[in-house]
Amino acid sequence: MDLVGIGVLIIGLAFVVLTIFLARVLHNLTDVIKGVNHTVQQLPGQLDKVTKQTGELIDTSKDTLVDVNEKLRALSPLFYIVGDIGETTRKLSSSLVDVTNTVKKNTSEGTEITRKRDLSGLYGAISLGYYWKQKHNTKKTLQQEY
Fold first, then answer.
1. Please, what are the averages of pLDDT over each run of 10 residues along the chain (146 residues)?
2. Residue 65 φ then ψ, to 5°
3. Which of 132, 134, 146, 136 is nearest to 94 (CA)?
4. Which of 78, 95, 84, 83 has its CA nearest to residue 145?
5. What is the pLDDT, as a whole number, of residue 119?
6. Residue 143: closest CA among 78, 88, 86, 98
7. 90 vs 55, 82, 83, CA distance in Å?
8. What local confidence, expressed as pLDDT, does residue 108 receive?
9. Is pTM, for the whole model, over 0.70?
């Protein structure tokens, strides 16, 4: 055999090895494609199930949202009432702070005058009566406002 024959023999053997390798790769690729085909065939049924469940979920969500809206509409007057009570309480406490500050100021001024003139007993009784009268008048005024 000459060199050309040996070269052709080597090329032929390499081609046979390459063909066997490619045949195995193509066989494995065929198995993969069969698996993909099986998966793709199941896909429409699975998509139908998912679509049906999604529709049911949307219907349930819609019903839940309608229920929540009805309950909020029922509670809205309660929230308005609580807001009105809060505003009234704020006004009342503001008025009470003003009255307290006025009484405190009047009491401080009366105490200073009493000390200067040493008329503590008489002025104490008069200031107590005046304080009760003012408190009574303030209470009446607050009741008339509300």
1. 87 95 96 94 92 94 93 84 82 76 66 57 68 80 69
2. -65, -40
3. 146
4. 95
5. 55
6. 88
7. 50, 12, 11
8. 61
9. no
Helix axes 120-145, 3-117, angle to 10 degrees: 130
CB 120 within 8 A of CB 73: no
The closest alpha carbon to 123, from 132, 112, 135, 114, belongs to 114
| SS3 readout for the chain | CCHHHHHHHHHHHHHHHHHHHHHHHHHHHHHHHHHHHHHHHHHHHHHHHHHHHHHHHHHHHHHHHHHHHHHHHHHHHHHHHHHHHHHHHHHHHHHHHHHHHHHHHHHHHHHHHHHHHCCHHHHHHHHHHHHHHHHHHHHHHHHHHC
Locate 70 and state its tokens.
């009805």
pLDDT at res. 14:
95
Among residues 97, 74, 80, 91, which one has the least CA distance to residue 146?
91
